[in-house]
Amino acid sequence: MVSRFFMGKNKLMIFALGRVPNVECKPNMYQLTQRLTGNASGVFFTNSKPDEVIKYFDQFEEPHYPKSGFIATDDFSLTAGPLVGQPFSLEPQLRALGLPTRLKDGMTDGPTDRPGPTHRPTHRPTD
Question: What DSSP string describes 21-81?
């Protein structure tokens, strides 16, 4: 399956695809430009059959990253040692949440192995 999304301002899309039949990039492409509305549009081109495309987008799921108020769906645990990739400025917030941490050589360090919550608590904006 070879597919492409083209997105951009409508005037640019209309210019690229062709406003009238004598300047269009492919036959009948000017008819598509008449359907571009709003401030910006996107066009999806593919060589796949319509039922394959519909099936793909019906099954497609974008990951949802947790925000305030979300309930944890997975169990996790933190191992002892430095928290790689976490800024040192995050250490006070982790400590306020009850995680025993300390700053060691400018890195946030977890002194002991610690299991994460298994009861899947709801996090509030104040956490």
Answer: GGG-SSTTHHHHHTT--SSEEEEEEESS-HHHHHHHHHH--PPPPP-TTPBP-S--EE-SE
**Backbone phi and psi for residue 41, each to the nearest 5 degrees, phi listed first:** -135, 170
Q: What per-residue confidence (pLDDT) applies to 71?
A: 74
> Strand, helix or coil at 3?
strand
Q: What is the CATH number of domain 3-59?
A: 3.30.70.1730
pTM of the full structure: 0.47
Instruction: Tell me the pLDDT tens digit for each residue of 16-71.
Output: 888 888 888 888 888 888 888 888 888 899 999 999 999 999 999 888 777 777 77
DSSP 98: T
What are the structural domain ranges in the chain?
Answer: 3-59, 77-115
